[in-house]
Each structure stands twice: as C-alpha cells, then as structure tokens.
Amino acid sequence: xxxxKALLFDVDGVLTDGTITLDARGEELKTFNVRDxxxxxxxxxxxxxxxxxxxxxxxxxxxxxxEMKIAFCRLxxxxxxxxxxxxxxxxxxxxxxxxxxGDDLIDIEVMKSVDWSFxxxxxxxxxxxxxxxxxxxxxRNGVLREVTEMIIAENVELVKKFNNxxxxx
Length: 169
What we know:
The protein is an alpha/beta fold and 169 residues long. The chain has one domain (6-166): HAD superfamily/HAD-like (Rossmann fold), CATH 3.40.50.1000. It has seven helices and eight strands. Strands 5-4-1-6-7-8 form a six-stranded parallel sheet, with helices on both faces. A two-stranded antiparallel sheet has the order 2-3. The chain is globular and about 50 Å long.
C-alpha cells in the first residue's frame, strides 16, 4: 500500500449504500457521507490522484464529484477495465501504483489488476474474497475516508504534513 499514488473507486456501494431513490421525474437521489470528501484536497495537494469509475450516472453524483474536485470521472461505464486503461494512459501511471475500492462483481477485474484493492465490509462475498483490505466501514459510512487515512498512515511524509496541516499532534 505504501507505493499507491492514485486511488480509483466505485460509487454505489462505496460512497453510497447502494440504494437507488428516484424522485417524481425519475432522477436519482443519493446520500453521501461528508467525511468521504474531507481529505481529498489535502491528498490532491500532495500529488495524489483520485478517480471514479461507476456503472451509474446521475446529476446528484456529478454534483458531488464536482464538489469533491475529482478530475477523472467515468460514469455509466460497463467496461471498467477500459476506464482503468484510460486512467493509466491519461496520468502515465503504472497499475502497480494504483489502489481501487469496489463492492460488486463488476469491480473484481479492476481490483485484480491494480496493486492494492479495498472493499467496504458489506461488499458482496466475491469481492470480499478478492480485496486485499476490507474496511470496517460499510458503504456510505466513510469508506473513502477510511481508505484515505490508511494511505496517509503508510506514508511518513504524508503523516508529517497531515499532522502539521490539521494540527492533530
């Protein structure tokens, strides 16, 4: 996990609990955990790349990802491996330097293709069997935050900057 320079993640089941709520017009409504976005800017400022590869797309999701300043967003994707290859090419980063958070069957191939894979504790059993790290958090309950904190904890320079930036020590 020490060499991760980029983190890709799915949305439904990771940033959300996987529930799909529709309004009267058929637009998806989503509930997100604010803690998931709290460390994104800190990590961006330290040359770390975040990206989303999601099988679904909605205005609510686009709004949240824009708010989090996630530059690489592939939404409505059925071929997540193609999106991974696009990310690798765009950012000139090796798969061995990428972590991925997924929760369902469509994520498994990507999880097996990157250096470090993570899954929320309530992911499907097949994903739990593939993930190198299973978070204590369930989907929508701070999974991204937990993984981000794990990555920071593995990097001495990031820990120093984190402690100084947030005055936690």
